[in-house]
């Protein structure tokens, strides 16, 4: 119990120091409304007395039941209202997701269905999270091509036709063994060796082509490995960095499928979601590029184990290297160079490794205690 109290105190202190995203920035980005028309409330939050629902973006999130969709929907709904953010997927949502705001079935491979959703709901922003990830993609290349490439084409065509702002995430997997690895710059040789990586390079280039050829407001961030306590890993090479926390709290033992010295860039989900929202909000004229690297921290399984053991000293980690995942990781960046994002639209991460570990252990420990109580 003392461990939990100490963790909560530390987490509360860290959370209290974090700045809130400004609603004013969102309104300004969405409709170009002058900041001079806003008044600050007594609480310090920006408000707009003249704004109505018609001034706000209407957002569709595809692949919404994955690691990031639910969290981004929650963040956006706090900013612009529940009814202005529609979560979609081809799977049935859990009850808490279904009852927390609009949810619809949407298959990105069904062009007609997707087009009807955009038109019928007056969509203005489209966040495209539907994808088959790296390790799963290598086991089913045909599915990865269909979802990651054909689905993307549908998104780009519909977004262009209806003048949408479209966000498509990329990944460290868009780089390959011939890319500089420490750090990896935004512009360099990429040449990935997984279908996931190839499809993400394709997405970056197609989006930028549509931007230059048709004026599409295309936006893309290359995500590091994303770590979250609330969602299960989705078949990526960096999944170990989520799984180890659950194992550490539940059993005290973990078998890692990457070598202990495998250094990869990582990011806590709160930083990732905030970066995505800030990037979506950024006025188009501030964006020198349409695809940006974002970075937070880099660590190895050994580094992560040592940090977790500060809170859970009995954790034992063994290694059983998966040759497929290890080969993928060996071709990925060790760190991403992200000075352009910090310069152009003010990106700045908040979680380093100590804060990440403390937050993850706190969330998972408290979650398990609540579950046991019931």
Automatic annotation (TrEMBL):
EC number of this enzyme: 1.1.1.103
Superkingdom of the source species: Eukaryota
Residues of the NAD-dependent epimerase/dehydratase domain: 59-294
GO-annotated molecular function: L-threonine 3-dehydrogenase activity
Pathway assigned in UniProt: Amino-acid degradation; L-threonine degradation via oxydo-reductase pathway; glycine from L-threonine: step 1/2
UniProt xrefs under InterPro entries: Epimerase_deHydtase (IPR001509), NAD(P)-bd_dom_sf (IPR036291), NAD(P)_epim/dehydratase (IPR051225)
Broad class of enzyme this protein falls into: oxidoreductase
GO biological process, one term: L-threonine catabolic process
Reaction(s) the record says it catalyses: L-threonine + NAD(+) = (2S)-2-amino-3-oxobutanoate + NADH + H(+)
Pfam families: Epimerase (PF01370)
Family: Belongs to the NAD(P)-dependent epimerase/dehydratase family.
Family matches, as PANTHER family: L-THREONINE 3-DEHYDROGENASE, L-THREONINE 3-DEHYDROGENASE, MITOCHONDRIAL
Its biological purpose: Catalyzes the NAD(+)-dependent oxidation of L-threonine to 2-amino-3-ketobutyrate, mediating L-threonine catabolism.
Name by which UniProt lists this protein: L-threonine 3-dehydrogenase, mitochondrial
Organism: Seriola lalandi dorsalis
